[in-house]
Structures are given as C-alpha cells and as structure tokens.
C-alpha cells in the first residue's frame, strides 16, 4: 500500500517520488547510496490492516476462500488479516509500540543501534507529514498520491487507508517494519526482436527459437518501461507470449 512513511536506515525520509510501490529501480538506487542494507516503514495499525497483504492468492484466505464475512471484518472492518497479524506477532523485522520514542528505541534495539536512530529527528518528519494528512489542502506529494488512489472505489474500500496522522493514538499502535533489499526479478532475459524471436550473440534471430514473459525480460522491464512498476508484470508476459505464438504459427504456416 502507498501510505507507510519510508525512512532510510539513518532515519531520513526517502525523497519523492520514492514511495511504497512507486519506482522500484529509483528506490533501489537511492537505498544503495545509504551504505546500509535495510530501510524502514513506519505506519499505524490502521494502515497495516488495510494495506498489507501477502503476495500470492493462497496467502489471502478470505479472498481465495470467497469468505465474505472474513473479508468484511478484516478488509472493510479494519481488522488485521490473520497472515499479516502473524507477522506482527512473530516477524523478526516487525516492532510495535504505543509511542514514538518507544518505537524508535525498539528499532534501535533491532539493529543494535547501527546506525543510531534519533527519535526527535524522526518525530519532526512525522509531524510535518501528519499536518498535511489532517488538512485537505496539504502539499505532501505522498499524501496527494494516497488521495488520488482513493478516488478509485476499489482502492478506497479495501486497499488504501484514509489519510490520518501517524501519531494519532486512535490509529495506533505505531508499527515499524525493517525492510531488506532482495532480488525478485532480474529485469533481464533473452534478447528478442519485435516478433519475440530470440536473438543470438551476433544479434541475428536464432532459427525457430522464441522467448516470452520473464525469460525474455518482460516481467517488469520492457513493454511497460524499465522502471518496473509494481503490478504491470503479467501484462507484458501475456502480450509477449501472444506475439511469440503468432510469429511461430506464421513461420510454420
Ligand atoms: C509472489 C509474486 C507476486 C506477483 N504479483 C504480480 C502482480 O500482482 N501483478 C503482476 O502483473 N505480476 C505479478 N507477478 C509477476 C508475474 O506473476 C510473473 O511475471 C509472470 O507470472 C511470469 O510469467 P511467465 O509465464 O513468464 O513465467 P512463469 O509463470 O514463471 O512460467 C515459467 C514456467 O516454466 C516452467 N519451467 C521452468 N523450467 C522448466 C523446464 N526446464 N521445463 C519445463 N518447464 C519449465 C515453470 O515451472 C513455470 O511454470 C508476481 C510474481 C510473484 C512471484
């Protein structure tokens, strides 16, 4: 979801437009300049209930089991879904606290204070963000994007939390999640031409060989641009597969 405040390992908010789910490559480039392998999401229970879901349909029993009651109580009713609650209870990268100083102290404990996070500096950034969350004319561009997402009814109902002050105790407790960089995509793959024909080292098509989907680098990089926008992978895979199928059929006709 788009609402957590994203801090680098030293406690500085990531610059726009590096918000959750926005620009994977840009965020990665930025995070690699900090000298640390981790960064932080700071959010509230209200945000985690609405915006955290485990990737993969089998991890969302209310959706896959078509369990309307569970869906209403969790996704609409503000309860944290079971699989997400399990991370809150047992996840080694999750910390929860009633107040910000307590939360920052737990974050420092988790990393052994390397680097030391300054609670006052984090509070300053959260307070600035919170002012824009509670007035309708705020200029915080992340909150503007959150409001934009909520103009779509599906997102407003079950995916994007209503903007609120992170320090509002009614939305709490506060949560911090330590994030690690991991490789989920290569954004590479076999070089192809516009007919999905695989190209050899010389740049010429290899006779009879086609490549599509992830194998051809279409899971993110490619038809939707190089910045790997979340949620656009499957389309490029299907589209390049269709082109490959048609080209192969035409070649054998
Ligand atoms: C957890 C997760 C969540 C995702 N969420 C989204 C999302 O919300 N939106 C989105 O657009 N995309 C999403 N994606 C990405 C998207 O699902 C993939 O990019 C897409 O499914 C890849 O399709 P593909 O056919 O290219 O490859 P795959 O689906 O990986 O198919 C490759 C197939 O080849 C088979 N195979 C491998 N080796 C061999 C072999 N030697 N012989 C025979 N068969 C073999 C494999 O078993 C597999 O079935 C997600 C991916 C993951 C992992």
What does this protein structure show overall?
With 253 residues, this protein is an alpha+beta fold. It folds into two domains: 176 residues, Flavocytochrome C3, Chain A, domain 1, CATH 3.90.700.10; 56 residues, no CATH class. The protein has ten helices and six strands; from the N terminus they run βαβααααβααααβββα. A four-stranded antiparallel β-sheet has the order 1-2-4-3. It has a two-stranded antiparallel ribbon with strand order 5-6. Helix 6 crosses helix 7. The longest helix is centred in the C-terminal third of the chain and has 20 residues. The protein is globular, with a radius of gyration of 22 Å. It starts with a strand and ends with a helix. Bound molecules: flavin-adenine dinucleotide. Flavin-adenine dinucleotide binds next to helix 10. The site of flavin-adenine dinucleotide (FAD) has 10 residues, from helix 10.
CATH topology of the largest domain: Flavocytochrome C3, Chain A, domain 1
CATH architecture descriptor of the largest domain: Alpha-Beta Complex
The SS-based structural class is alpha+beta
The CATH class of the largest domain is identified as Alpha Beta
The end-to-end distance, rounded to whole angstroms, is 47 Å
């Amino acid at each position: 979801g788009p609402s957590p405040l994203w801090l680098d390992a030293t406690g500085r908010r990531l610059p726009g437009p590096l918000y959750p789910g926005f620009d994977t490559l840009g965020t990665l480039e930025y995070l690699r300049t900090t000298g640390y392998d981790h960064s932080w999401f700071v959010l509230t229970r209200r945000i985690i209930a609405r915006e955290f879901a485990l990737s993969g349909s089998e991890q969302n029993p209310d959706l896959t089991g078509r369990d309307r009651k569970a869906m209403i109580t969790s996704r609409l009713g503000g309860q944290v879904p079971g699989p997400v609650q399990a991370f809150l209870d047992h996840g080694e990268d999750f910390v929860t606290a009633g107040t910000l100083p307590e939360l920052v102290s737990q974050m420092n404990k988790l990393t052994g204070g390397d680097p030391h996070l300054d609670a006052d500096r984090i509070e300053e950034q959260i307070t600035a963000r919170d002012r824009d969350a509670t007035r309708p004319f705020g200029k915080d561009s992340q909150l503007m994007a959150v409001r934009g997402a909520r103009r779509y009814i599906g997102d407003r109902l079950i995916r994007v939390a209503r903007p609120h002050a992170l320090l509002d105790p009614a939305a709490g407790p506060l949560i911090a999640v330590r994030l690690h960089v991991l490789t989920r995509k290569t954004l590479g793959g076999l070089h192809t031409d516009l007919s999905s024909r695989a190209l050899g080292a010389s740049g010429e098509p290899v006779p009879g060989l086609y490549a599509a989907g992830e194998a051809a680098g279409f899971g993110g990089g490619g038809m939707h641009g190089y910045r790997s926008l979340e949620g656009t992978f499957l389309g490029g895979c299907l589209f390049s597969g269709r082109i490959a199928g048609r080209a192969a059929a035409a070649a054998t006709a």
